[in-house]
Design goal:
- By secondary structure, the protein is α+β, with helices and mostly antiparallel strands.
- It has a single domain, classed as HIT-like (HIT family, subunit A, 2-Layer Sandwich).
- The chain has 3 helices and 5 strands; from the N terminus they run αβββαββα.
- Strands 1-2-3-5-4 form a 5-stranded antiparallel beta sheet, with helices on one face.
Length: 138
């Protein structure tokens, strides 16, 4: 049986969870506020979810994006569902700055510059509280 990292591990520091999905923070010093929204049940594609499940998942993704924008004040937020290596529905919510290491390329691309710019310092508890507040409305 194939191993699925997002079924077998939380996939990051859990900030919030429901019966259907969870929000985790990715420990990346260059991209503070990098979060993933992970559907708990192992499904490969968004269209494997019911329309109601899709709406709920996207409401969570958009809620996380709003928190990332408010707390980290990035120039842009990348929201992506790639999952080529991990065939499990999940969305990346990544704050981006014009002077970050990879801009304007994706964070998985070639490093463009060495980053020395300080970013907003938001600890896990602050991020967790903000995500919980916003997602209590979902």
């Amino acid at each position: 049986m194939a191993v699925c990292e997002l079924c077998d591990t939380p996939g990051g520091t859990v900030l919030w969870q429901s019966a259907d999905c969870r929000v985790v923070r990715i420990a990346d010093p260059h991209y503070p506020g990098f979060c993933r929204v992970i559907w708990n049940r192992h499904v490969r594609e968004m269209t494997d979810l019911t329309p109601e499940e899709r709406r709920y998942l996207m409401a969570v993704v958009f809620g996380v994006e709003s928190v990332v924008r408010a707390l980290f004040a990035p120039d842009k937020v990348n929201v992506a569902s790639l999952g080529n290596m991990t065939p499990h529905v999940h969305w990346h919510v990544i704050p981006r700055w014009r002077d970050d290491r990879h801009f304007p390329d994706p964070i998985w691309g070639k490093v463009q510059r060495e980053e020395v710019i300080p970013r907003p310092a938001v600890d896990d508890a602050q991020l967790q509280a903000a995500v919980s507040r916003v997602l209590s409305l979902v």
